[in-house]
Design goal:
The chain is an alpha+beta fold. It folds into 2 domains: 3-202, no CATH class; 209-299, Elongation Factor Tu (Ef-tu), domain 3 (Beta Barrel), CATH 2.40.30. Helix content is 18%, strand content 32%. A hairpin with a 3-residue loop joins β2 and β3. It is globular, with a radius of gyration of 21 Å.
């Protein structure tokens, strides 16, 4: 299970306790306990000493740099089984470590190169296996947002935009989906993040509100630890005309109970409709409501802000308009 999936457990209110108990136990089981031959060298005493030396050299270099475009100490994780720290500088390269509840799960170091477009390429000394609770993305895009600095995997820029649209970024604590320079969670994120031009259309000025108009195929997959994953394809009543793009993420805000997984990822887009995939992770003994026509979704926080039409209607009738976006617990 990718670590990003762990972070979505916060939005699954009714089962988050189960998720946060089960997942760390899976992570803990992958601590330093007999790695394969290809992995043994990185956990050797020699590699540990070399990693420590390179870490010190990188920190010394960072101490002499002023507000570099991408150099720094970055963190991403959930504070439990996923605590990944990436330290990198132009001359010293990078050092990476993944810690969890039972110790070190992964360790690596190597060089850093930059492309003409500004993308960072990590060149690791050891195998960089990203299955399970290990590894780090080897291609990263530095993204500035006001005084903040993020490092986002090339293949995850759309997901970063989804996080911005849903108000999960800018975050107010260090824990989070994407590498953020240490301490930057306390800095202001002014304006919009400076992402590559080809992704700028994914940053929405206003949330897109949608509704399921048709439900298609459902597939069920057996998972570990008594979990079942149900994937359902649906049609939404929004498309290119409303600004929908493939890879965008919608979040279910009605109904509010029994959903268990509130994200719908857009697969394809037509002029007025789009197809999306809703994936629900469910413990076998827990029943989850299956998607049906009429569910309401948004690209923004789960509690959408009122539209101008809603405001006008509520003013005319004296009724209270729906509450604004829930940014503290999106």
């Amino acid at each position: 299970m990718p670590w990003e999936a762990i972070m979505t457990a916060k939005s699954v209110r009714r089962v988050c306790g189960i998720v946060l108990v089960i997942v760390p136990s899976l992570a803990c089981s992958q601590a330093e306990r007999g790695p394969k031959d290809a992995q043994r060298d990185k956990f050797s005493a020699t590699a540990k000493r070399t990693w420590a030396k390179r870490h010190k050299a990188t920190k010394r270099e960072l101490a002499g740099l002023e507000d570099h475009a991408w150099a720094g100490v970055y963190y991403q994780g959930d504070g439990v089984g996923v605590n990944a720290t990436l330290t990198l500088a132009p001359q010293s390269g990078f050092v990476f470590i993944w810690r969890g509840c039972l110790g070190v799960y992964d360790r690596n170091y190597g060089g850093v190169t930059t492309s003409e477009h500004g993308t960072l390429q990590l060149v690791p000394k050891f195998e960089n296996d990203r299955r399970g609770f290990q590894g780090v993305a080897s291609e990263l895009i530095p993204i500035a947002w006001g005084d903040r600095r993020y490092l986002v995997p090339v293949k995850k820029v759309t997901e970063f935009c989804n996080a911005v649209n849903s108000k999960r970024e800018p975050r107010t604590q260090m824990r989070g989906f994407f590498f953020l320079r240490r301490g930057d969670h306390e800095k202001p994120a002014r304006g919009v993040p400076e992402i590559p031009e080809e992704y700028q259309a994914y940053l929405l000025k206003e949330p897109i509100l949608a509704e399921i108009v048709e439900v298609h195929d459902t597939d069920v997959e057996e998972g570990v630890g008594g979990w079942v994953f149900r994937s359902t394809t649906v049609t939404l009543n929004v498309g290119h005309a409303e600004g929908v793009l493939p890879g965008m993420s919608f979040r279910v805000y009605e109904p509010k109970e029994g959903i268990l997984c509130r994200a719908a990822r857009v697969l394809s887009v037509g002029e007025k409709t789009s197809r999306a995939l809703i994936r629900q992770g469910v413990a076998k003994e827990i029943k989850a409501v299956q998607p049906v026509a009429g569910w309401k979704l948004t690209t923004g926080p789960r509690r959408p802000s009122p539209s101008p039409k809603q405001v006008d209607e509520s003013s005319a009738t004296g009724a209270a308009a729906p509450m604004g976006g829930d940014q503290t617990n999106p």
